[in-house]
Amino acid sequence: MNPGGTPEEIGAGRSSVGSRHAAAVIAAVAVAGLALRLYLLAGPSHLGGIAEYDDAVYFGTSLLMSHGLWPYRNFVMVQPPGLPTLMLPLAFLAHATGTRAMLEATRIVTCLVSALNIGLVGYLLRRLSIGSILAGTGFMAVYPSSVLTSQTLLLEPYLNLFVLLALAVLLEEGSLARVWWRFLGAGVLLGMAGAVKTWAIMPTVVVAVVVGLASRRRLLLLAVGIAAGFALLAGPFFLTDPQAFVREVVLDQFVRGGIRTPFGLRVGYLTGFAVSPVSGNPWAAATVGALALGALTYPFVRVRTGLSQSERIVLGSLALVLVSMFVAPEFFYHYAAFVAPFVALGWGHALVRLRAIPRDGHRVPRAALVPVSIGAMALASMVHLEGSRVGLVDPSVAVRRVVPAGACVVTDTAEITILSDRFFSSSPGCPRIVDAFGTALDYSGSVPPADITTAPRRLEQFWIRSFSRANYVVLSANNAARIPWTPLVLGYLRGHFHLVSETGVSVFVRNSG
């Protein structure tokens, strides 16, 4: 016979923890998680090297905004404006310190945000048990995608931050809050999450369903808050150019093409074993994924007490997010980081139910479950970390040696000019390009440049026009995935520029005369 009551009551009755002890455990795991992230960031050139493509898109957008230029209206940016808006203080500081120092600062800030997310998971599990807190926070601390995604300015850590803050405001002891303003506040935070990345719609829908089943009035407050939160970060950009905003943020992303990411690689990243043989074997990957999902859901099936409102939100969000990970044509390692908080919270609640399983002939080795699970994830994380601590390319020395400050530079990745303190140009009419890939999507009907055999003339002319206004062209090793090198575009570059440096990046200087 299963014990009655909600999982929160089961946890409180059988393994109650003092608030001080819970806070100490949460703080300790969060600090350990931060140390793990800073360890990776301290790798060769990781703080000041080319770590990603997307980070320069977001911070480059912030830098242009600090000069009074607007995304969607003055230049292409195919993501919501939330994260660049949040980074505006650092962008303004870059005018005094240099752009390199502030991009490095964004990487440190992102590590801190990732560690804060560990603490928020612990806060949401604080009334269950020490084991639940350790399960949730421990998972968040060592989950490979969460660690790797914290290394530079990417969307997922900030998306997780606003979603977790919303849940912290909305929930009280596993149930919806009693006071009205919490629904409004949670809605604002969910709306801000949506302005960071549109994926926030998945937990938002689940929260709305749970709240709507409890109270239509509370659902209205939540909806008002969502609209206000989204308008706070995205409203001004939408009003400036509604057509471009919808096209770039919604349509370009929704219909973008590309090669579909293999199933096995997706499961490899989601389970934390992407570098193992599992990632290349769909059947092995499916087996690992099924075992992991089965271990998480088993306690909910075995202990058939009604799901609390907190559990409904967590499990419903996890289901929607997992489905989206396999529906999207393309999949990148940092996508898996959005799964982490829901798995972590799910483990915390599952552990309470696991403790309630009767000690019969089918007894589960409960005491070993948490350390074994977290230990396996930690091992996977260590493999990822050691494989990721290879030296990154730092283009600053090569670029600074050739390109003077204030020169007009065109590049396929803004990270090169940001790290070299050559992002700002004093030349009138210098092209403002922070997202070459996004520009190709927008100009060519959402077909990635790598798939273009004959570039649309509009896109071709865009690059010829951009090169014609530049004195320097700096290209990364991945430029072919962002610039369509048609005969006309390639001919213009070769006819008007000459290569002067090829140390990590290729630097071209305009021909004299």
Tally of helical runs? 23
Strand and helix order: HHHHHHHHHEEHHHHHHHHHHEHHHEHEE
- On the 0 to 100 scale, the average pLDDT is 87
- SS elements, strand count: 6
Shape: globular
State the separation between the terminal residues, measured CA to CA: 90 Å
Query: Helicity level, as a percent range?
Result: 55-70%
- Give unreliable regions as ranges: none
Order of strands in the sheet with most strands: 3-4-6-5
Our count of domains comes out at 2
Question: How much of the sequence is in beta strands?
Answer: under 5%
Give a short synopsis of this structure:
With 513 residues, the chain is mainly alpha-helical. The chain contains 23 helices and 6 strands.
Structure report:
- A four-stranded mixed beta sheet has the order 3-4-6-5. Strands 1-2 form a two-stranded antiparallel ribbon.
- The protein is globular and about 85 Å long.
- Helices cover 63% and strands 5% of the residues.
- The model has no long low-confidence stretch (mean pLDDT 87).
- It has two domains: 7-356, no CATH class; 396-510, no CATH class.
- The chain is mostly helical and 513 residues long.
- The protein has helices spanning 7-15, 19-41, 54-65, 82-86, 88-97, 99-124, 130-142, 144-149, 155-170, 180-196, 201-214, 216-240, 242-254, 263-271, 282-302, 309-327, 340-355, 366-388, 396-402, 414-419, 436-443, 457-469, 487-496, and strands spanning 171-172, 175-176, 409-411, 472-475, 497-503, 505-510.
Question: What would the keywords be for this entry?
Answer:
four-stranded mixed beta sheet
